[in-house]
Design brief:
alpha+beta, five-stranded mixed β-sheet, five-stranded mixed beta barrel, 11 strands, globular
Length: 341
């Protein structure tokens, strides 16, 4: 409804904005101001502002947006950039620790209840989100905080859900174990005394098991494909035409396409930890953010070339003032094997 209109015209204003803080933040984020879009806000601008509140001082972002001094604006924008890099380091540390524990927990139940140690609490929600995306299970991370309740140790928890599992309702059913809690169906936060952690973990796993016995599809995250396409359909012209549907978001999702039986070539990993992948499929460049490592291991493990159904968005890759069409991959599904001659 009106949200899309607000974002559409808000982006137009930001592209022309004389606000020094916004302009400098766009600059240090490596964004072309005249082509600023909703994804730039979601993945580049907002994370830099949010990072200050997560691990440092949220007032830095406020000062940036209010200043009328160009030197101060640049200084604050660079500081937010530095804090965001620190946030990534904290996040990588917590992710590596919690993912290892999650892989152990999944052997004992479908509700991933993880206890973190020495992690920055400001990024645990992000980590829980990554874990639930990777393992397709609801994930809760708890960590001890420097508070006590009548001499008892207190833990703070944050969680993210997947499929049709209502996390808030599950916590509400077990609220007798919690000091306080809040959230909604897909995310939650709570505090709990140390002595109740084990019982909460057991209950959540038992509750989810009972729910899955009633509905085995509960954890499924089906991707709604709008259209099956051929490689010949994927063009820069189509990618530009799809821009008329923007800004996209909840209620106006970005169109999702499926390219069937495509052969993957030149598969390589990129990113600080090799968490992203770039490859070609039927002469179309593809990028897969936070890709499924199992697929990579599968490609390496056999001599056959693999054909996959590729589900994703048609996008534009800009590099050195040159535009090329690409597929931004959401999922790969192996369709068949093509043996070498």
């Amino acid at each position: 409804d009106e949200n899309r209109t607000i974002v559409k015209y808000g982006l137009n204003l930001m592209r022309k904005s004389s606000n020094l803080g916004i302009s400098k933040l766009i600059e240090v984020s490596g964004i072309k101001k005249d082509k600023l879009n909703a994804m730039d806000i979601s993945f580049k601008i907002a994370p830099r502002i949010n990072a200050a509140g997560r691990i440092n001082d949220a007032s830095i972002g406020v000062k940036l947006l209010l200043t009328e001094d160009e030197d101060i604006a640049l200084k604050l924008a660079n500081r937010l950039n530095e804090i965001n890099n620190e946030r990534r380091e904290f996040q990588d540390f917590a992710h590596n620790q919690c993912m290892e524990k999650a892989k152990y927990e999944i052997k004992n139940g479908d509700f991933l209840f993880i206890e973190a140690e020495n992690c920055h609490e400001g990024i645990l929600g992000i980590v829980a989100g990554h874990i639930k995306d990777k393992l397709k299970r609801p994930a809760v991370i708890v960590q001890k905080i420097d508070e006590e309740n009548e001499g008892k140790k207190i833990y703070k928890g944050t969680g993210r859900s997947t499929g049709n599992v209502n996390l808030y309702e599950m916590l509400n059913e077990n609220s007798d174990l919690l000091l306080k809690f809040g959230g909604h169906s897909m995310a939650c936060g709570f505090t709990i005394e140390e002595e109740n952690i084990k019982e909460l973990k057991n209950r959540l796993n038992m509750d989810l098991k009972a729910m899955l016995e009633k509905d085995e599809t509960l954890l499924r995250n089906e991707i709604p494909v709008d259209l099956d396409i051929n490689s010949s359909d994927v063009s820069l012209e189509l990618a530009h035409d799809l821009k008329y549907l923007e800004p996209c978001g909840k209620g106006n999702p970005e169109p999702i396409f499926r390219l069937n039986n495509a052969e993957l070539k030149s598969f390589r990993t990129v990113g600080n930890s090799g968490e992203h992948a770039i490859f070609d499929a039927d002469n179309i460049r593809c990028v897969y953010f936070n890709f499924d490592r199992d697929i990579y291991e599968n490609l390496l493990s056999k001599n056959a070339k693999s054909a996959y159904d590729i589900i994703g968005h048609i996008d534009i890759n800009e590099w050195n003032d040159t535009e090329n069409v690409q597929l931004r991959v959401l999922k790969l599904i192996e369709s068949e094997s093509i043996t070498e001659n």
